[in-house]
Amino acid sequence: MIPETGRREPGTHSAPQPWGVLGVPSSVAAHWPGIEKGPAALRRAGLIEELRKGAAPVQDFGDLAVAAWASVRLGGRPNNADGVRDVLVAARGRIVDVLRTGARPFVVGGECSLAIAMVSAFADIGEDVGLVYVDGGQDLAIPADHPEEPILDSMGVAHLLDLPGTDAAVAAIGPRRPLLTDSDVVFLGYSEPEEDLHHQVGSVRIPAAEASAEPEAAARRALAALEHDRVVVHVDVDVLDFLEVPAADIAVYGRGLALTTLTRLLRVLLRDPRCAGALLVEYNPDHDPEGRAGRDLVQMLGDTLA
Fold first, then answer.
1. For the chain, how many structural domains are there in total?
2. Is 97 inside any structural domain?
3. The pTM of the whole model exceeds 0.90
4. In whole angstroms, how large is the CA radius of gyration of the chain?
5. DSSP H helical ranges for the chain
6. How far apart are CA 279 and CA 236, in angstroms?
7. Which residues partner with 186 through β-bridges?
8. Could you tell me if residue 14 is inside a domain?
């Protein structure tokens, strides 16, 4: 039986719900290899030890098998779409395992597309969640938008929403289609130009400039826009300024958030009693040979949850 993790009645108190850390070391949906090394590198940087300094207990569910990028072009579909689907199905199953222990899944990736696995896992156990998408972009592309760049990593939210033109095999992961609707998603902290070129997705959008000006207010606005009892927080490290934290698989120069700003956002988001899960994705250790950015990310999570 899945324990209740929704809103608490005023005046009630309970022990913090555990975090269940799961690594998904995959770059199958990415632009190139590299991010499959992220979970292991963050573990070496002290991820589990730092998380265990927080108020909530931490259970370590280990890592899935490594799945690295490969060029697989079939039938005009996005690159290695079936390989991406296999990774997402495996991740979804393990996230369900985490949920059945009563822990909140904390997924360390790996690609942005893992948000599909997270939302699908909650749907598998009959739970609806809202999604706060803290990301340098909005991942609303469909294959026809960039036929010369058929990379599913930039299409995750489009597949969650099952926008016209998405890959059917990827959009069909989970017990229903679509997994989410516009009102289930809030975009927070993005600095890329508007990506919603065709579909006019009606989700709430809070850009990087607004998040940087008043981080706590921006985080509270994101949460207030979701009426769900449970909320999942997705964090792509490309939301950060690469010149300060050279961590992301795809760099954002000058327009991303400061590390202190992201920390302040996550203190509100991850400490909210509705927060039922989180993802940290797109850390590429190949861009961080001395491990400084990895240590900064681990310290940020420690500061967030302490």
1. 1
2. yes
3. yes
4. 18
5. 38-44, 47-51, 81-100, 114-124, 156-160, 168-171, 208-213, 215-224, 259-271, 292-305
6. 8
7. 132, 204
8. no
Percent helix, strand, coil in the chain (nearest 5)? 35, 15, 45
Average pLDDT score over residue span 234-238: 98
The 10s digit of each residue's pLDDT in 39-81 is 999 999 999 999 999 999 999 999 999 999 999 998 889 999 9
Higher pLDDT, 193 or 39: 39
Structural contact between residues 200 and 158, judged by C-beta atoms closer than 8 angstroms: no
What is the spatial distance between Cα 102 and Cα 12, in angstroms, rounded to a whole number? Answer: 19
Task: State pLDDT tens for residues 194-228.
Answer: 666 666 899 999 999 999 999 999 999 999 999 99
- Work out the angle at residue 34's Cα, subtended by the Cα atoms of residues 30 and 36, and round it to the nearest 5 degrees: 80
Helix 215-224 crosses helix 259-271 at what angle (to 10 degrees)? Answer: 40
CA–CA separation, 24 and 176 (whole Å): 23
Tokens of 3: 């324990």
Beta carbons within 10 angstroms of residue 67's beta carbon: 22
Q: Evaluate whether 244 touches 254 at the Cβ level (below 8 Å).
A: no
Which domain, by its residues, includes 171?
19-305
